[in-house]
Amino acid sequence: MTEETEKVGNVSQSRYEQIVAELRQVVEQQSQGSFTIGDRALEIEPMRPRGGIVDMEWTVKQSLLRLAADIGVTFSTVKNTRSTAAHWPKEHRQEGVSFTIHRILARIEDEEERFAAVRTPPEGKTRWLPDDARRRVGWKVETPETPQEKITEIHHLARDEEVAATVTTDFLKRPQVAAKVSPENKVRMVEEFTRDETVATTAATNLLRRPDIAFKAMGDDTARSQVNHAQVERGKQAREHFERTSPVAPAVRHIDRTAEFLDLVTACHAFVAAAGRTVPGLRDRTLVDDERTIVHQNIAKVRATLDWIETAVDTGKVDVDDELARLLRGE
After folding, report:
1. Cβ atoms of residues 41 and 85 within 8 Å
2. In whole angstroms, how far apart are CA 246 and each of 194, 201, 238, 253, 256?
3. What angle do CA 83, 85, 86 make, to 5 degrees?
4. Cα 254 to Cα 1: distance, rounded to the nearest angstrom
5. pLDDT of the residue at 6
6. Cα-Cα-Cα-Cα dihedral of 210, 213, 214, 216, to 10°?
7. Helix (H) and strand (E) counts for the chain?
8. How far is it, in rounded angstroms, from Cα 186 to Cα 202?
């Protein structure tokens, strides 16, 4: 395509260049006009040290409000041009650089750095662009280019919780996106999503139906203990409900007592039989100190348990005192 036929929008390339040249002059005039407004606002109300008297700050605002009304612009326009003019003495204002660029670069606190920056466009560029100036002072850009800028823009757009929730859901539906989330962040996300007990219950149930996950989860002592405790509690609750509501509960309780009696006798018989088989094997054998200590600790547990059984059989009380509980836990 030749230069004559190449177009930008609805105009030829040559006409576009004429428009750019014309509008640069307009922007230069607008910049001079903005600086003039700022200079005159400074003349009316010079900049004062921060943390000044409140009454004086009020007086400054009143003066600038009056000026804005009298020249037909907004108060924010007068305020911003005044601040920008204060940061840019006339001898340091750069011709060909718009007022917008000067206003943004005014955020650079060090004067020497600021005055040098406006004369030095970013590497590889011949002039300052607004987004380049925003990057220079750490502001959010209008057209994100780097991954971090795009992330910042997404965060900005997703400040509304409903928008954030929808975006997150849509992103996680993309396998290639979910695959790039680190394991640590995935765990954090699951924990966050399962704060609701109903969601947590459903998720845990579905996960434990997967044999490989259930096997690995039960390798954690705390998880296994909690599952065992939950099973015991669930069984206890089911039993209590049955005893409260079922008409056959009294008969079942009698059977249960008989079964418990048989279980207890069986346990005692099994212990005596196991000891009868094991103890003779210690003949002419001397255990080392560590082994003797372990055996004595277990004998203490057995003695305490036998006392507990006798008390339960004689009195019907099955409560475990603190000392026995510690022994049974191995403490």
Report:
1. yes
2. 36, 29, 11, 11, 15
3. 65
4. 100
5. 84
6. 160
7. 16, 2
8. 18
Global pTM reads 0.50
Residue spans per domain, the chain = 7-142, 286-331
pLDDT of the residue at 255: 56
Task: Kindly report which listed range (14-23, 133-142, 220-229, 290-299) carries the lowest average pLDDT score.
Answer: 220-229
Alpha-carbon gap, residue 89 to 94, rounded angstroms: 10
Q: Give the largest Cα separation in the chain, rounded.
A: 114
User: What's the whole-number mean pLDDT along residues 252-281?
Assistant: 74
Residue at 69: amino acid letter: A
pLDDT at 273: 82
Place of tokens 């640590």: 184
In three-state secondary structure terms, 137 is helix
Q: What pLDDT is recorded for position 16?
A: 93
Please check the confidence at residue 52 and state whether its pLDDT lies above 60: no
Decide: residue 34, CB within 10 A, 0-12 exposed, 13-18 middle, 19+ buried: buried
Instruction: Record the tokens describing residue 178, joined without a space.
Output: 């979910």
Cα 41 from Cα 173, distance rounded (Å): 55
Please report, as a single letter, which amino acid is at residue 259: A
Helix (H) or strand (E) holding 240: helix 221-245
Q: How far apart are CA 101 and CA 130, in angstroms?
A: 6
